[in-house]
Every structure is written in structure tokens, then in C-alpha cells.
Amino acid sequence: GGNPGARAEIVFEEQGRQRRPAHLKDDGRRIAEGDRIIVRTPGGGGWGNPLARPAGMVEHDVRCGYITTADARGDYAVVLDSRTLAVDEQQSAALRSKTALSAGRRD
């Protein structure tokens, strides 16, 4: 919510080592068996105050693999139990309050 979208990225993985090609179309690389080209498409930005997103919906996004627990904490100020992925209501409320105050938000 409310943040810019992710950028597109192309990663060439050669024998397990990753590097980003400058010009995929014309750099003359040979692809060997087991090498990979990974294309990450751009993501859309969010809308609205991320702190207003209900914690339960953020939990759902983590369970579905849309975001990580680190994203939940860093972007939405939602703390999840590392074992069960359930929202820790008390820690989330404290973190959201602290985050809102540091950002000057009151909503």
C-alpha cells in the first residue's frame, strides 16, 4: 500500500551464480544446460496508507506467498508469529503506533 511498484529485472544464473545482464538481446552469452534466465516482471505500486491495511489481510498475503514476513513488518508494521504466521496483535499495534508517529501519520 502506498509505495512505488517494484522494477523489472532480468537475472542470468550461471552454475548457481547470479548476475544481471546489461543487454540480454545482444551480449553473446551461451546458455548451458542447467543455466537459467529469470525474468521478474514489475509489480504495481500500492494505494493508500499501508498502516490502514487490516493486519488479517497482511497475514493472508504472507500465507499466500505474495509478501514475506519481513515485508509484513517493514511495509505494513504487522508482526507475525514466526512459527504459525498468526498476527501478533499486541506487537503489531505497538509497531504500527510507533511507525505512524515517526512518519507523522495520525490515520
Query: Which overall shape is indicated by the principal axes computed on the Cα atoms?
Result: elongated
Number of strands: 3
Number of helices: 3
- The amount of helix comes to 25-40%
Low-confidence stretches: none
Task: Please explain how this structure is put together.
With 107 residues, this protein is α+β, with helices and mostly antiparallel strands. The chain has 3 helices and 3 strands. The protein has helices at 55-63, 69-76, 89-103, and strands at 9-14, 17-19, 36-40. The chain has a 3-stranded antiparallel sheet, with no helix packed on it. Strand 1 and strand 2 form a beta hairpin. The radius of gyration is 19 Å and the shape is elongated. The two termini are 14 Å apart.
SSE inventory with pairings:
Layout: E1 9-14, E2 17-19, E3 36-40, H1 55-63, H2 69-76, H3 89-103
Antiparallel strand pairs: 1-2, 1-3
Characteristics:
107 residues; alpha+beta; three-stranded antiparallel sheet
How would you summarize this macromolecular structure in one to three sentences?
The chain is built from three helices and three strands. The chain has 107 residues and is of the alpha+beta class.
